[in-house]
Amino acid sequence: MNKASYRSLVVALMQRDFKVAMRRKSDSINPLLFVLMVVTLFPIAVGPSHEVLGRIAPGVIWVVALLASLLGSERLFRDDYLDGSLEQMVLSPAPLELLALAKISSHWLLSGLPLVILSPFCALLLKLPIEGWLTLMLTLLLGTPILSAMTAIGAALTVSLGRGGALLSLLLLPLFIPLLIFATAAVDSSLLGMPAIGQLLFLAGFMVLTLTLAPLAVAAAIKVSVN
Amino acid sequence: MWRWLHPYAKGEASYHLLGRWLPWLTASALLVLLIGIGWGLVFAPPDYQQGDSYRIIFIHVPSAMLSMGTYTGMAIAALVALVWQIRTAEWSIAAIAPVGAVLTFISLLTGAAWGKPMWGTWWEWDARMTSQLILLFLYLGVLALYHAFSDNRTGAKAASILALVGVVNIPIIHFSVYWWNSLHQGATITKFAKPSMPPEMYIPLFVCIFGFMLMTAAFITQRLRHEILRQELHRPWVQQLLVGAKVKEQ
Question: Of all residues in chain B, what percent carry a pLDDT higher than 90?
Fold first, then answer.
């Protein structure tokens, strides 16, 4: 196979993912509703004072983003596994790593990007001071691809188990901790009026590293699961 | 080298090899630990500031060091299992992970017991403690994944991939947590040129570390033997071994 047909394969795969998502809109919308619901719970639980909410807002939004990414992650490969298209991907002459990267990309476009777009609204609800908004969006823009790639690894590992949910969060949440640390540190330092570029560059570095290595792990995991 | 290593890809050969090592490992581990801990707890001088309570270092430091060392060992086994498809390496993941998890837990527990008199708190969200806690979660994740599959081979391979993903992440987690917050003192004995302890303290500490290494090796050897037996239960050599043991008992 030459390069052009690889490209058409990737495009076809992503188009199919979008078509499936369009036909089952609730799958993409429910995690976003979950984010809004949980964000709503915090002012009710800790009280609506500006100082407290503004202080915890970056952490809350990021933790909610992690949980939302776990919520949808089980479905990432489940349907493909059940209807056999995952097996076809393994059998296809295109490298499985490339197809894994395509799956990760379409997953990010369907779950990560909407979250980035929704985040200013969450920041408004949680009364995050305006100085932090841009940094929050940038951290989410850099961080959500990492979330998609890592959840893809976890989902590929547990796809052949009927009941991956709790196990998946046990596997993935420890690996998300560096992301959480750098993202919240970036937002905090821009709230203090300091430049956040250092943390943002770290996040960008993690993103490049993850997107380079994760497809290899996803491909290996799919091969193990499909068998 | 391959010709020499190849027989040990088979369960039976490695079972007997490990069986030959086990008594030596156990005896030397007991001996060295007895010397190290006895020396550390009884004969080493008390600290000028912390008094006798610093003596928990003789357990805390070796377990913390080995908790990371065993993870590396597990990751190497995982790599071998994935690349060369050697089943003994797959089983050794199941043998190593619980030992590593327990070592991590011991280091957390002794750290908490040490922190209470020295820092006045059982738990602080400090860099080293947090990264150690995360290491414990990683071990538990590998174990959970290994045992989650009804087909053992799939579980072992999935756990290998996870262990390798974890090994890429451990340095990242370690340093990120380190920059995030720190209360724990810096490393005492990695500066081999001039340890920041007197020799009466660091020599027993080294003995303890060596003893913990031997003990860890002995536990892993024994667990691997059990895992080999459990996995090869349907093979004739295991049945012969078990029947033979029964005949001897009677």
Answer: 11
Listed in sequence order, the residues at least 6 apart from B132 whose beta carbon sits closer than 8 Å to its beta carbon are: B64, B67, B104, B107, B108, B111
Cβ–Cβ under 8 Å, residues A126 and A42: yes
pTM reported for the whole predicted model: 0.84
CB-CB neighbors (< 8 A) of A181 in chain B: 176-177, 179-180
Query: Mean pLDDT, chain B, as a whole number?
Result: 81
Query: Cα separation of B7 and A194, whole Å?
Result: 61
Whether B164 sits inside 8 A of A217 (CB atoms) is yes
- What is the DSSP-derived secondary structure letter of residue B203? H
Contact criterion met (CB below 8 Å) for B19 and B25: no
Domain total of chain A: 1
Average pLDDT over residues B21-27: 86
Rounded to an integer, the average pLDDT of A53-81 is 87
Q: Chain A partners of B168 at a C-beta cutoff of 8 Å?
A: 213
Q: Which two tokens stand for residue B109?
A: 């527990």
Q: Does B72 reach chain A within 8 Å, measured CB to CB?
A: no
Judge whether B83 lies within some domain: yes
Subunit contact B141:A224, Cβ cutoff 8 A: no
Whether B179 is covered by a domain: the verdict is yes
Identify the CA nearest to A99 among candidates A90, A108, A107: A90
pLDDT at B183 over 50: no
B145 touching A (Cβ < 8 Å):
yes
Say if B4 falls within a structural domain. Answer: no
Nearest Cα residue in chain B from A161: B149
| Residue range of the domain that includes B178 | 20-44+52-249
The answer to whether B203 contacts chain A (CB < 8 Å) is: no
d(CA A60, CA A67): 11
B243 touches chain A (CB under 8 A): no
Which B residues in the span 73-102 are in contact with A, Cβ-Cβ below 8 Å?
82
Confidence class for position B18, pLDDT limits 50, 70, 90: confident
Chain B residues lying within 8 Å of A182, measured CB to CB: 176
Question: What is the residue range of A166's domain?
Answer: 3-226
Give how many domains chain B has, as a whole number: 1
With a cut of 0.85, is the ipTM above it?
A: no
B141: closest chain A residue by CA? A171
Q: What is the pLDDT of residue B64?
A: 86
Q: Is B204 contained in some domain?
A: yes
Report phi then psi at B47, rounded to 5: -75, 145
